[in-house]
Each structure stands twice: as C-alpha cells, then as structure tokens.
Amino acid sequence: xxxxxxxxxxxxYPDYWKEISDPDLESFLDHRKKSTPILEKDRxxxxxxxxxxxxxxxxxxxxxxxxxxxxxxxxxxxxxxSENVNRFWEMNEERKNMxxxxxxxxxxxxxxxxxxxxxxxxxxRSGKSREVYEPELAAPSVTIKKKDEPIENNSLTExxxxxxxxxxxxxxxxxxxxxxxxxxxEEDSQSARRFIKMLKWFCVDYELFLTTGWTGWEERLQxxxxxxxxxxxxxxxxxxxxxxxxxxxxxxxxLKTLITKGKIFNSDVNYLSFETIRMFFGKxxxxxxxxxxxxxxxVISAVVLYVPTPCRGLGSEPSENHVKxxxxxxxISNTFTLYNSKFVPVWEFHHLFPGHGKCGSSRSDFIAxxxxxxxxxxxxFLIEIEQNGFExxxxxxxxVSEAAHEFNRILSxxxxxxxxxxxQTRFHIGLINGxxxxxxxxxxxxxxxxxKLVYIHTRNTFSLNIKTNSxxxxxxxxxxxxxxxxxxxxxxxxxxxxxxxRPATKFSIKLKAALPSLPTxxxxxxxxxxxxxxISKRVKYDFLDEDxx
Length: 549
Prior knowledge:
With 549 residues, the protein is of the alpha/beta class. It is built from 22 helices and 14 strands. It is 44% helix and 17% strand.
C-alpha cells in the first residue's frame, strides 16, 4: 500500500504495509513471525486492528487507501476464525511448546526451574490471568514489550446503539468518531470520546458534523454577533468619583480611553463636539447596546474589587465557591435581574431526570429561567463552574446533557410550533474556569416529514477572561459580557418565553414523537486529576445500527 509519510510515522510495523497491497490478518501474522518466532494470539490480533485504525485516521472517506483499510477491518472477525489463521496458531503453539521443552521445563507450560524464572503472560478477555507461564530466557519476545509499541487496552468496551435513520449524515459521523477515538494525538482521541458521550444524549458536534457533508447554519451563526456596549459616562463617572474607594476612581479614565478607541460608546450627547460627530459616523456602522448605569456600576465594581484570596494560605488558589460568590454571582445575577423581570436567575438548580425522580439527579451551578402561565420553570441558559481546570471543562458533558433534558421539556410542553420555529429555538451553555467563560449553544435539527430530531452542539460561540493583568481589558470584557448576555442569550430566552406561553391551538403529535428518548440518569463530572483519561480507564465504543438489533 502506498501510504503518506505522516501515516507511516505513526505505524508500529511500517515494513509490512510497504510490502503488502491488500492487507489481511494471515499475511500480517506471517510478517510478525519473521521477527518474533513465538507470538501471543490476542495481542497480535489487537496490533493488526490498531494499525488499520491508524490508517483510517489519516485518510478521508472514499479514498482508495481508506477503502482498503476499512475492508480489511470489516473482514477481520471472519479471518480470526478462518482455517488458515487457526492453523497458524496451532503451529505457533507447537513451536512454543518445543522452545519450552528445550529450555528444561518438564511440563512445558506450568513448571519452571530456578535458573529459568517465569511470569504470567497477558490476561485473557475475561480479565483473569491465564494459568500459563513462559521462561524469559527461552522466549523473551513473548513477554517483553518494545517501547515504541502502543499500549493496548481492550478490557473496557461499550456498545452504543444508534438510529442512523435520524439523519442521513449520522452514520458517516459515527464512522469518524469510531476512528478518531483511537487517534494517536491525545486531543483528538479525547474529543472523540467526548462527542460519543454527547451522542448518547442525541447531540452531535457542529464542526464535526459539517465534515460529513451537512450544509450547516451559516446565517444563524452570524446572528451571534452582538452590539457594542454603550454607557452614560457622565452618570457612571459621578458614581465612581463620589465613592470612597480609590480603586473605583481609576475606572473613569479607563472608560474615557475605551470610548476614544471605539471599544464602547457614550450615550451622553454634545452635538457641538467634534468627537461626538466622529463617533456618530462611527456608530452609524455599528449597533449599540445601551447598558443602564446601575448595571455598569455593579459589574465593573465586581471586577475591580475582586480579590483572588487563596483558600489554603500562600501558594494555593482561590476556591470555586470564592470565585463564584465574589465575582460571577454579582455580575451574572445583576445582568439578568436589572434587565428584565421575566428572566429569573437561580443558583444551584436541580434538573429532575426521570430516573431519579424528586431527588434531583443533576445540579447546575446557575440557570436563567422563564415561567409559563402555570408557573412551570423553563431554563434557557445554564452555567457550570470549575476552578483550576484543564482546557476541557470537567462538566462539559454534564452541561450538554442537562441542556438536552431541558430542551426536550421546552419542545414538548410549549405551545404549537412550526418546523421553522422549532429549528430557530436555541439553548445557551456557559462553562466557567476560574475567571474565564466560554459559551456554546444547543439547537434542534428537526425534520417533520421523517419525525426525527437531533440536537446540534456548537462550541465556543463566544469566550473571554474578565480578570487579567490589565484593568482596561477587564472593564471592556465585563461590559462585552453583559452585552452578549442581554442581546444574544436573553433574545433567545424571550423566544422561549413566548413559545411556552402560547395558547394550545394545536397538538403537535409529530414533534412529540420526534423528541429523542434521552437517558434517565445524569452524567457524572469528569475527574480532572490528569489532563487526559489514563489509557487503562478509557472506554472503547462500538457502534451498532438500531435496525440490526
């Protein structure tokens, strides 16, 4: 097979792939026998499978190399029980017994002499060690693993049954995930495992789904742009300058600088000012988001006065509760409370999954909710918080599962919605790590004709850090955060509030039938002692077609 250099560098046995045209298990075993006379069955089968999966990662669907590797992988199970392969392993066993007998072992399989130490070989599939021993001196290649060989782990496997009829591109999406979960780059492998866990909640990743040929929602992503913050500099300056805390006095010149740079706008109008005329023509090309003075004062004060106090003395970091109470609670609660009384902020909210009943099976650090006419709560935005985490938030899958659960409730209990209205509904997710926040969205992809629905998860729609080494950057960031929450998140919250309060003029039985049957138990947070899940604890997923069950 003609493989590119990047692919060859990842393979453990590149010589085999250079000399073979159509790979098969028997020829791979013959190649391995040349360098290692005695082989271990399960280990060699696993190595062959891993090599094929590495090749699939480096080539696109439909290419000649991809098709050959995929064909070889599909026929591997039949080859494992074929007559030729069975004969190969019978001869391998005879060679093994011969070597053991020549080494001085009377039984050949169990006993060992003092001069020929022994140790158990690889555990069986059941997880228990086999009662088989081999001397290191006689056949070291059976027990010694080369440093450059991949560590295999097939003990943790899980079958995932998927209804490929939900969307025409879903099967191709699963094929990509199946390949990526074994990718040699840790970040890619980790992403695949995350996306597979999301798939259990009928959620697919937007960017990865695009690679299957799905056209996407370009026009809807453009709606995530939001207006430039606008404040009353005169009123805000009066509040800060009259305060006794000197830290707040320094905010006024910073606001003036941001206005001069066009980062924020000033609503105070002096028509004779050249600066006003210049800014007027600049603003004509941009939309503004007027932020009331009380909100501006409260959110900027929270950022300026925040002190990251160590929770266990010098050298430690602030606790999660400290960051939440002293920084985020003041900003987020006031952003919603001072904007619209219909949007109610709730800290520590329990999502009542069916499998856990009234006890509550999952808890969000924060949600913003709206009510219908009978005072039933409907979240439209949730936040999960962590402190000192890694790039991947420990509660990312938890947040997506909670959002999918609440989305099902919104679509099922809301008033009648057309197909377009269902697909325009959007749920927002915020993931906080220390003083940084990253937003994502969950949106339904609904097809009324087929009565199928899947959720699209779009990552990193907006992100920022509100506590850096620059106070000017922090003030600008927190005002941008308020604008995003009010102009983007609250806009979608108002859409949901309108939907759930519509009169029930029709009964949308097709929509209710299309809603996915989600798991009844919540996802557990990912332990973050290490950046990547150890290989011994990783689950390998096998995809099964629901129609074949």
